[in-house]
Design brief:
Length: 459
């Protein structure tokens, strides 16, 4: 099928690349010219395992191209994905201006046959209908006639387009895997023609043709109304964030009573009604989506006069959790002024270069405020131009330089390679070998044998 994906952030690029990989003819549009040039040269603007290889092979096969020409994209695609960002406004609500600009642009260029416009971006409940209206506005602006006065799209029995909500559930760092091995595909919309086209688009994925386990049962497709599909996305992220806040709360109680949250999480996770995933206690959740999506859902509830107390608690527990390592540093080192703290990891999770709302940022800010010197090593940030963009922290190029002269290390991101560092050597280079393991990721015994004083999170 002919597909156009508008917006090439994590979601747009992964969607475009994966749809071309399964045989569709895809054009990806972005209004950032520099990014488009980079992608046209075969380079991925983001670090995501496996993505560059798929991108290059699809380009070579002539099934994937990049452009900043929205008109060309709209003309090309029978299915048009909106995958631009919906960042948070200071109020917590979602900033939908990029979605609006794209929807208007689609309307202005819509011509020819029937199209399905897909909301892939995470958008506030009700946005499907709103996007439909904006597209109609765009059409009427181009035709310079008010919608409903002779505009072809106004005839409900013969629509020029339909809007479908198709929320994205991929995780950064495993985005390619998640796309080919999804737990479900959610399609919100009312026109069976649009839903049928979406089902055809995803058929190879539903049939597990590109899955790790090709014999796994078909991927379930859930068809809902527009608003329910939009709510599925927010509710999923809010549930996962709540699950983490819950285990973090349990970890803090474990710390006080002398229980071990890692064993506790194992014990509760074995209950199939609870499940073992997303029970890793630590220094809080971050990233480009959990914080903004939980806040946006809270804001939506508030708009409708409902006080979402559990969502509020989920955020509050996380805000406090992000400062846990600071409290632990104060307990260990007492006065932080003049001390040197080294951070192992900067990104909000491993296998990504994404720094959006990373717990490290808030820690750096507070350590600076308290007069500590902050150094960091991150496998991606340290090796890229990103290191020059960081403020309030000296980004070292290797772990030994990081350890040198530190009064304590804090493991912020559970990068796999941090498992097997030469901790004995690092301890010798430190002023005082203290380790706060913010992800309960390291082996206490190994660290203690290496000379460290070790402190986990409820562990
Ligand atoms: N990052 C993630 O892991 C996930 C994100 N989402 C949702 O997907 C959406 C996109 O997120 P990201 O990919 O992280 O976004 P992003 O912020 O990384 O990228 C957005 C892209 O859209 C482009 N763009 C903005 N306005 C445009 C316009 N008028 N025309 C063409 N391109 C335009 C930007 O240049 C940028 O390349 C958001 O709503 C997010 O909540 C959903 C699931 C996972
Ligand atoms: O809407 C989105 O953008 C995406 O948000 C999350 O994906 P992502 O933010 O990439 O990363 P996660 O693996 O969910 O981790 C989020 C944060 O929670 C933390 N986390 C995760 C799991 C856990 O057990 N404990 C924990 O503290 C991570 O360290 C990280 O800071 C969801 O998992 C995806 O399904 C969703 O599509």
């Amino acid at each position: 099928m002919r597909v156009c994906v508008i917006g090439t952030g994590y979601v747009g690029l992964v969607t475009g690349v994966s749809l071309s990989h399964i045989g569709h003819d895809v054009i990806c549009i972005d209004n950032n010219e520099e990014k488009v040039k980079l992608m046209q040269s075969g380079q991925s603007p983001i670090f995501e395992p496996g993505l560059s290889e798929l991108m290059q092979s699809s380009m070579e096969a002539g099934r994937l191209s990049f452009s900043s020409d929205l008109a060309a994209g709209v003309a090309h695609g029978d299915i048009l994905f909106i995958a631009v960002g919906t960042p948070p406004l200071p109020t917590g609500e979602s900033d939908t201006r990029y979605v609006e600009a794209v929807a208007r642009g689609i309307g202005e260029h819509l011509n020819g046959g029937y199209k399905v416009i897909v909301n892939k971006s995470t958008v506030p409940i009700g946005s499907g209908d709103w996007v439909r209206m904006i597209v109609m506005d765009g059409i009427s602006e181009r035709q310079q006639v008010p919608v409903g006065v002779g505009a072809p799209a106004a005839k409900p029995e013969d629509p020029m387009f339909d809007v479908v909500s198709n929320p994205e559930f991929l995780r950064e760092g495993s985005a390619v895997y998640d796309t080919f091995n999804p737990d479900r595909i959610v399609l919100g919309g009312s026109n069976p023609k649009a839903i049928a086209m979406m089902k055809e688009l995803y058929e190879p994925i539903v049939e597990r043709q590109f899955a790790e386990d090709k014999d796994a049962p078909q991927v379930p497709i859930l068809v809902t109304d527009l608003s329910s599909a939009e709510m599925v996305k927010y509710a999923s992220n809010a549930f996962l964030a709540t699950k983490i806040s819950f285990i973090n709360e349990v970890a803090n109680i474990c710390d006080r009573v002398g229980a071990d949250v890692v064993q506790v999480a194992q014990g509760i996770g074995l209950d199939s009604r609870i499940g073992s995933k997303f029970l890793q206690a630590g220094i809080g959740w971050g990233g480009s989506c959990f914080p903004k999506d939980v806040s946006a859902l809270l804001h939506t509830a508030d708009d409708y006069g409902y006080e979402a107390q559990l969502l509020r608690a989920t955020i509050d527990v996380n805000t406090r959790q992000r400062l846990l390592s600071l409290e632990k540093l104060q307990q260990m080192l007492k006065i932080l002024k003049g001390k040197t703290v080294g951070l192992l990891g900067l990104t909000f999770k491993p296998d990504t270069d994404d720094m959006r709302d990373a717990p490290s940022l808030i820690l750096i800010e507070h350590l600076n405020r308290l007069g500590a010197k902050v150094k960091a090593y991150d496998p991606i940030v340290s090796q890229s131009g990103m290191r020059n963009g960081m403020t309030g922290v000296i980004v070292e190029t290797d772990v030994e330089r990081l350890a040198d002269g530190c009064d304590a290390l804090v493991l912020v991101t559970d990068w796999q390679q941090f498992k097997d560092l030469d901790y004995g050597k690092m301890a010798q280079l430190m002023t005082t070998p203290n380790m706060i393991d913010g992800r309960n990721f390291l082996d206490r015994k190994t660290l203690e044998e290496a000379g460290f004083t070790y402190s986990g999170v409820g562990h």
